[in-house]
Amino acid sequence: MPQILGELAHAAALAGDLAAVSAALAAAEEYTADGARLFHLWAALARPWEAAARGERSTAVKLATELAEHAQLHGQVTFQLHALHDVVRLGEPGRVVSRLREAAAGVEGQLAPLYVSHAAALDAHDGLALDQTARGFAALGL
Q1: pLDDT tens digits for range 7-62
Q2: What is the spatial distance between Cα 87 and Cα 16, in angstroms, rounded to a whole number?
Q3: Angle, nearest 10°, between helix axes 77-89 and 40-53?
Q4: Which of 128, 74, 56, 129 is nearest to 97 (CA)?
Q5: What one-character DSSP code corresponds to residue 13?
């Protein structure tokens, strides 16, 4: 359930509905069983976007960076990649492009390399590479 509530909070944050974000995150926090702690990372992914919806971009970047560090420490590479990519999406690709490369090394699938190419293209201000990356995301339905 925390995963679903985290996704709901994330969507609400992107839509700017702060009341719905707060309600979904509060509900997610009610799930405290040790076995469900992994799923709290989904709710944690919404917190940077909640800050961004409040207009607190530096806080959003800080929260995403802290989540990436936490995920790395606990061997949660998927969450680390998502959190690092959120830093990119929040406008700070230069802060994480090398960390994204390291985290993506050895990860199977097409998404991790796209996160890296997105960060690199934004950091380099390379419009052609950004267009190619956008086509890659679109090919995955994203």
Answers
A1: 898 899 989 999 999 998 888 877 755 555 566 788 889 999 999 999 999 999 99
A2: 18
A3: 10
A4: 129
A5: H
